[in-house]
Amino acid sequence: MNLIIFGPQASGKGTQAEKIASNYQIIHISTGDIFRNNISKGTELGRIAKEIINKGNLVPDDITNKIVENRLAQKDCDKGFILDGYPRNYHQVEFLDKLHRKITRVINLDVPREELIKRISNRRVCSDCKANYNLIYIKPKKQGLCDECEGTLVQRDDDKPKAIEKRLNIYDNQTKQLLDFYQKKGVLININGDQPIEKVFKDIISSLNSSKH
Ligand code: AMP
Predict the structure, then answer these.
(1) pLDDT higher than 80, residue 177
(2) Please, what is the average pLDDT of the chain?
(3) Given 36, 105, 123, 124, which residue is catalytic?
(4) What is the atom index within ligand 1 of the atom nearest the CA of 35?
């Protein structure tokens, strides 16, 4: 099973991708996580990506495409994968298409913009272990501190108001159109992402299971 999950920032795509990967025992590939890991490890890629990401822009296609190509070439992806955050524009769609990995289904999470802004501005991440929180939906037990390691909770630079608007506009202008490409291939499934996490997950699984036949 080779999947792609689409959805704007804070649509819950990372959470759902993890749950789907664990449910079907497939590999979760998040380009955003790959960049963030490189940033926290201080690698050359991290150094390049950091400034771009903090401004709310996209990392250049040649860099991103190469990362995905290398990851998909690893043996563990043969059992199936779910791409989260990739492809994000038409060049990436074309590049992925040329890798000839048959995409079984493309999941699109639909969430209204007001709800996205509310979710993003309340998002916090642990500065030590990188665990995610939300001041409305996934509150830490102690204010400002991580439940796991007591690290300080911070707001990602790309979750600040100016970057949020830019990222949602990029999504509207570029990424949404990609859905048409997959719609024409007959692999797109639309899911209402404005529901509790478990209900969204249930809808995804029943849609994936019923569309197999
Ligand atoms: P995400 O966690 O998916 O929201 O990604 C965080 C940031 O990483 C994005 O705002 C981009 O700057 C960068 N990024 C992630 N995936 C891609 C991609 N496919 N193409 C270009 N930049 C990306």
Answers:
(1) yes
(2) 93
(3) 123
(4) 8
The protein residue whose alpha carbon is closest to atom 15 in ligand 1 is 32
pLDDT for position 9: 85
Kindly report the backbone phi and psi dihedral angles of residue 127, in degrees, each rounded to the nearest multiple of 5, phi listed first.
-70, -15
pLDDT tens per residue across span 78-108: 999 999 999 999 999 999 999 999 999 999 9
* C-alpha span between 165 and 32 (Å, rounded): 18
Could you say which of 19, 105, 119, 167 is catalytic? 167
Active site residue 88: yes
pTM, two decimals, is 0.86
Residue 212: pLDDT band (50, 70, 90) is: low
The amino acid at residue 129 is C
**d(C-alpha 106, C-alpha 186), whole Å:** 9
Residue 131: left (phi > 0), alpha (psi -120 to 50), or beta?
Answer: beta
Which value, to the nearest 10 degrees, does the dihedral of the CA atoms of residues 189, 106, 22, 60 take? Answer: -140
Q: Which residue has the tokens 């690698």?
A: 43
Report the alpha-carbon distance of residue 12 to residue 191 in Å, rounded: 11
- Judge if the upstream peptide bond of residue 161 is cis by omega within 30 degrees of 0: no
